[in-house]
Amino acid sequence: MSDNSNNDAHRGALNRRRFLQAAGGLVAAGALGAATATAQTDGERSKWSNPETWDGSPPERGDKVTIEEGDHVVLDTSPPPLNGVLVNGTLEFADGSIVESTDDSNGDGGDDESSDSGDGGDDSSSGDGDGNDGGGSGSGDGGDTGAESSCAPAWDPETVYRDGDEATYDGTRWEAEWWTRGDEPGARRYGPWTELGPCEETGDGGGDGESAEASVGVDAPETESADDDARFDGDAAACAQRWRPSDSHETAYRSGDVVSYGGKNWEAQWYTQDDEPGEAQVWQEVESCSIVPGGDDGEDVDLELTTTWLLAEGSNALVRIGSEDDPYEHDARIALVGLGGENVRGEGAEAIGTKLLGTWDGGSIEIHGASRDKTDWTQLDAHADAGTETLTLANAADWEAGDRIAIAPSGSDPWQAERRTVASVSGNQVTLEEPLDHDHYGAVETHAGTELDMRAEVGLLTRNVELRGDDLSYADRDRGVDSEYAAGFGGHAIFADPGRVRIEGLEAFRCGQSGLQARYPLHFHHAGDQEGSYLRHNSVWHSFNRGINAHGTGNVEIERNVVFDTIGHSYLVEQGLPEEEGNVFRENLAMLTKVVRERDRAFGGNLANPGDVRRRPKQQNAFRPAAFWISNPNNTLVGNHAAGGYGAMGFFYDGHDETDVGLDAAQFDVQFEDNVAHSYSVRPQRQLDGYTGDVGEDELLRSWRISHYQHICQGIGLMMQLEPMEIDPDEIPSDRSDRLAGFTAYKCEHSGVWTEFQTSVLEDSVIADFNIGHFAMGGSETRNTVFVGRDGTDNDIAPPPTRFKTGGPDLEGPAMHDATNGGRYEKAEPTTSNVEYVDVDRRHNSRLTPSARTTDE
């Protein structure tokens, strides 16, 4: 399509709106082969439902939409499913008069598989003057005038390229001559790449806004293009999971497997790894498919925007739902559809992918749901036995019938966490639609004058503003929300180079993208200093990849959120960068954090190569995740509850070599107060990557013993490993004190606490129901703390029912364990002062130094 025809379309002869002129030098539509629509508001507020907003013709199914800088569009109706929404101005969700949608098949759609490559990976079809297509139309920006061509997607060492595929590397465009992966363009004289010449980057916001011809970042050369209209056909069959070439026997395709590619579903006739559908006989075409098949998930909302992505780009760009002073009252949903293959912006580590809500180049997001004012989470005030339909809460809750809640486990089995729907509420009494399957404890005990609060937490999952991945997100369509483990390609929110992000009262459901880095439900991505930004009173649940992340970002307030049922870390400070300081995690709840299966670990890592200090920057401990995984200790954690995880930990300060990440150990400032961790299990040895039910006592004990190794231990309430394990203790500042105050840990199968080096001070804490109370290394100090064990009978002071006792190995382990022996360096001895032991046989305080043994005797 020439520039002349584009300009005609932009003036109103839309011809089904085949062009979208985006601000900042982006032409999104024609290059991607999709219909497009541009708001025409002349800087005034204008309603989406008003045809004049769109020069007479509102967006249709499969269109790409832009809101230009200076324009302000109010979304007052649920539009049909769209193929991307670019906001350079303001997009505001109406909270007043909402117009009923006229699209009778608008719903929680499917995939974005075939909008991918051919939609812009090769510009030869757009007639834009690409130096490889013979000059295109010769109009618009002058055809082929000898100037640099626009760049193809950046070369990716993990991507498979075939004959004719193009990629950009070091400012030069290259064409593959045969199948290749990992071969660096230009590295070999007779390699698979042919140099095509220099190219000009135009897809990330450069240019003059009128002549740029880059597509909206397509970055999947192995995926062919398809008709966007067909992909958004509400009457077509649902697209299967997107085809990807396999690099292993485990992930290969076998007879009967069905994939989607090029807008069609294909069935494998026999075993294959990287044969491309449509190019090899192994694949038989089944039918055309849609990423947004008709129908919805049966849950009505007042306003829904269904799209492959929604991006606020530019310093004047804003996506807004409510305001801090006037929160949004209606029920609204952003439904994200797609199965991948596209990259909307960025390259390499800065790429943001697709199926997203995000920011770029200074864009901002303001979401303020009225549900921010509801009770985020509380605790039981009485035992709730299996079979009951009533919960007695510690506080009155303003929840409503239909709200979804999660109830934390009380024993050491994290799988006893439960999700239920509220039937009614009266004060602090909550009636459930279905009875409980497990017992949940609801009492505060007192031991040696110290309170031990073991009341199960109850968290609210429902919020009135929702960010949701579509029904087609699951990698295995037989899996679902009730599966113990379900990988998938869900939606994600990525705040890259944002202006300001303030989100409260949001529910993120079916988000995260398994096996992919930087694709998490709520994620600040190299955002720098974000003072004034916050994530509070939100929920993230049933996540395919992690929860809430501050990566390369500092000074974000993360407060009173509920994260439930996540594969991988629930809350995290990701890389240990100097920028990741000053974040405040306050009174958040994490529940059911689950180990990541090996094939879904974006950063790798396994028991044979577990990610020790020499490799950890790449592997991030997905094989033993944490409710709170903190790689830079200079952040504040106060009043958080980590309530159960499988093969996981509660709080994990993960040490890095400061030469790798630029941290100064002398400047560490740990702020850790009044946090709680309980119900963290050791996964059975034979099921390191599996999820099954009960196992025998002997097998569990073997797993518990192997979990003692530093690099693979799990089932710990708090692990403090600020420095690399092989560092010389003399290199650690002796005057630094890492205070761990007011900590409560119970029913953790390995240890309540694991600390390393003389800087750690555990104080004013209570550790109960442990195999090891405090696994102390290198001079750690324990003071003003109570250890509560269980002997062969119930506790005489405040006996919990037997069913609440820790399962697995017996509980005759030590309250204190001196683990200073061995290792590369001599370490100082742990010490104790004013420590009380209740139902603990101190003869089991194994290998304690004489001073530690006798201080309190």
Question: What are the SSEs and their pairings?
Answer:
Elements: H1 3-10, E1 21-22, E2 26-27, E3 36-38, E4 45-47, E5 64-67, E6 72-75, E7 85-87, E8 90-93, E9 149-150, E10 166-169, E11 172-176, E12 193-200, H2 228-231, E13 237-238, E14 258-261, E15 264-268, E16 283-290, E17 303-307, E18 309-313, E19 318-321, E20 332-336, E21 356-360, E22 364-368, E23 377-379, E24 390-392, E25 404-407, E26 418-426, E27 429-432, E28 444-447, E29 450-453, E30 457-460, E31 465-469, E32 492-496, E33 501-504, E34 506-509, E35 522-529, E36 534-536, E37 539-543, E38 548-554, E39 557-559, E40 562-567, E41 571-573, E42 584-586, E43 589-594, H3 616-619, E44 626-630, E45 636-638, E46 641-646, E47 649-654, H4 658-661, E48 671-673, E49 676-681, H5 697-706, E50 716-721, E51 738-741, E52 744-755, E53 760-763, E54 766-776, E55 781-788, E56 816-818, E57 831-838, H6 850-854
Parallel strand pairs: 3-5, 4-6, 5-7, 6-8, 7-18, 8-19, 9-12, 13-16, 17-20, 18-21, 19-22, 20-31, 21-32, 22-33, 31-34, 32-35, 33-36, 34-37, 35-38, 36-39, 37-40, 38-41, 39-42, 40-43, 41-44, 42-45, 43-46, 44-47, 45-48, 46-49, 47-50, 48-51, 49-52, 50-52, 51-53, 52-54, 53-55, 54-55, 54-56, 55-57
Antiparallel strand pairs: 1-2, 10-11, 11-12, 14-15, 15-16, 23-30, 24-27, 25-26, 25-30, 26-27, 28-29
